[in-house]
From TrEMBL:
Keywords: Membrane, Transmembrane, Transmembrane helix. This is Polysaccharide chain length determinant N-terminal domain-containing protein. The chain crosses the membrane at residues 30-50, 326-346. The keyword Transmembrane helix applies. The lineage of its organism: Bacteria, Pseudomonadati, Bacteroidota, Flavobacteriia, Flavobacteriales. It comes from the Bacteria.
Length: 356
């Protein structure tokens, strides 16, 4: 029984040689795999170079045909005219504005010109000539960096360290930027000033923004009244101090100060301190005047090009705006390349026809 109960203890030993060998084999396979990828990419590059060399004349002919087609269509197709305005948002109207532009585009696509005329005040046949509405933010890369820096400063150090610039740009919506550009593309050269005015007017009559404007202006006016009262009291206090100082000079210049009792201690106020306080109050009044001027308009048109519009026949391709000649050169060369690659691929499959 005792022999059955006694079980020898077995120690597990790790063979370091086997472990290093497994690790070495894993790295060897990894490097071979990476090497095979680069080798295949190199073969693909070599094949592509010889493919271009083999069909270079065909690509040149395709490019010439693309230029000819682009020139022909540019001269014979109806010109497209573009008018635009740049606006400044004094309130957070961006989301509402973008939704409105999307709605106008839906009306154009549905050819609901009657509704479009009523909403935006088109006259005559202008509505039916509209091709599209578009809007985009007007902001430079430097301004984006400044916005990112300003946003980071509002966060604590731990949260700020986790926010990257690319993440900020990804989550930062275009409609949040102050300056926006609205564009109208049409088939006729026309003055769209009244249309742009109506787009802005629809925002300025929005009940929510009107209410916010009233509250902001009321708050600014109250601040202005309070600051003017404080400035008047400060002027009165300076006059009193001046009289005391003149009286003091007559009494052999003995030092006298005016003191004001605060919550917990007494502070001696000098004439220069009163002067600095006046400067600060006047600075705040100037800032309030500027804020009132900004809040008087919900949206402002700051620049425009809508008197007659400009010719714009550019074609959008892969988020790029290209001239017709460049667009058709790229298009025909791509089509030629796809056709030739398809023919070569079918010839390659023909080799395996007899093996099936």
């Amino acid at each position: 029984m005792s022999k059955d109960l006694q079980q020898p203890k077995q120690s597990e030993e790790v063979d370091l040689g086997q472990l290093f060998k497994l690790i070495g084999n894993a790295f060897e396979r990894l490097f071979k795999f990476i090497g095979s990828i680069f080798y295949k990419l190199f073969l693909a590059f070599v094949w592509f170079v010889f493919f271009i060399k083999k069909h270079i004349i065909k690509f040149v002919v395709a490019g010439v045909l693309g230029i000819a087609l682009g020139v022909f269509l540019e001269k014979n197709s109806e010109p497209t005219y573009k008018s635009y305005v740049t606006i400044k948002q004094n309130y957070e109207t961006g989301e509402n504005l973008y939704n409105s532009i999307s709605y106008y585009n839906d009306l154009v696509q549905q050819k609901d010109y009657a509704t479009l005329k009523n909403v935006l005040g088109f006259t005559g046949s202008e509505a039916s000539s509209i091709l599209s509405f578009s809007i985009e933010s007007v902001i430079s890369e430097n301004e984006k960096l400044q916005a990112f820096d300003k946003y980071i400063k509002t966060l604590d150090s731990v949260a700020a360290s986790k926010i990257e610039y690319e993440t900020f740009l990804k989550n930062n919506k275009d409609y949040t930027h102050t300056y926006q550009q609205i564009t109208i593309k049409a088939l006729v050269r026309s003055n769209f000033k009244s249309v742009f005015d109506n787009i802005v007017g629809n925002l300025e009559t929005n009940p929510f923004f009107v209410s916010e404007q009233k509250k902001d202006l009321s708050e600014l006016i109250s601040k202005e009244i309070a600051l003017k009262e404080a400035l008047a009291q400060s002027d009165s206090l300076k006059n009193t101090y001046k009289k005391v100082l003149e009286k003091d000079l007559k009494n052999n210049g003995s030092e006298i100060g005016i003191t004001f009792e605060g919550n917990t201690e007494k502070n001696k106020t000098k004439e220069f301190d009163l002067y600095l306080n006046d400067l600060e109050l006047r600075r705040e009044l100037v800032e309030i005047e500027r804020q009132k001027a900004d809040k008087e308009r919900i949206v402002e048109i700051i620049s425009s090009k809508q008197d007659s519009g400009t010719v714009d026949n550019r074609i959008e391709f892969l988020s790029l705006e290209l001239s017709p000649k460049v667009f058709y050169v790229i298009l025909i060369i791509l089509i030629t390349m796809i056709v030739l690659m398809t023919i070569d691929f079918l010839k390659f499959l023909e080799r395996f026809k007899d093996k099936i």
